[in-house]
Design a protein that fits this description.
By secondary structure, this protein is of the alpha+beta class. It contains seven helices and six strands. It has a four-stranded antiparallel sheet with strand order 1-2-3-4. A two-stranded antiparallel sheet has the order 5-6. Helix 5 packs antiparallel against helix 6. The protein is elongated, with a radius of gyration of 29 Å.
Length: about 210
């Protein structure tokens, strides 16, 4: 799908009077689409409309045309309309996709636009995670930099050496869990690769496929 222009991405169309009179069905949704600003009057659809012939004649022509996608349309609330360039009766190239939800027509954004939004969102969330981590780090002349989080208490029935060992291990585990919790709260799980898996298993991980 070609890149969506900023003007089309923010546009929508609805004709309340038309909807009140005719309603929307798979038989008339294209006629409704023809009244919108998204419709190209130079398309093959306009040619056959002027000739008074059926949509079936579109397959005998070449050029730009609009067609209802019956597979993804869910009457009466959702209709998907494809703008394609027909090269032959069986060969078409998809140009743009439009969807009509409860009478409101929108242009579907292209994959590149969606990726830009996703990358920007992930980048912001990762930056927010590091900022939160940075705010939790404190400096001590004895220990240097460390993450300042609440640590679990150690049971008093152990001798002093065991207490020191357990406390040190618990602090490390607790700090790692705190860091993981921060990232998981900011970044969707599927966007964080699991590097603990053996390399032989990476190919079977959905994240890498």
């Amino acid at each position: 799908i070609m890149s969506t222009t900023n003007s089309n991405a923010n546009r929508q169309f609805i004709d309340i009077k038309w909807l009140a009179v005719f309603g929307l069905t798979k038989e008339n949704v294209l006629e409704y689409f023809y009244t919108s600003d998204f419709y190209d009057p130079k398309s093959n659809n306009e040619v056959i409309r002027s000739q008074g012939v059926s949509l079936g004649h579109l397959t005998t022509m070449t050029g730009v045309e609009y067609a209802l996608d019956l597979e993804y349309s869910k009457e009466p609330h959702l209709f998907v309309i494809n703008k394609v360039y027909r090269r032959s009766p069986k060969e078409v190239d998809l140009i743009e996709v439009f969807y009509c939800i409860d009478g409101i027509i929108y242009q579907c954004p292209c994959l590149l636009d969606l990726l830009r939004v996703r990358v920007a969102q992930v980048s912001y969330n990762v930056h927010a995670s590091f900022k939160e981590l940075n705010d939790s780090i404190e400096y001590n002349s004895s220990y240097g930099h460390r993450l300042n989080v609440e640590t679990p208490e150690v049971s008093e029935d152990k001798d002093e050496a065991d207490k020191m060992t357990v406390a040190s291990e618990n602090v490390q585990i607790h700090r790692k869990a705190a860091v993981d919790d921060i990232f998981k709260s900011k970044v969707p799980y599927k966007l964080i690769p699991n590097f603990s898996k053996p390399l032989s298993l990476l190919n079977s991980d959905p994240f890498y496929n």
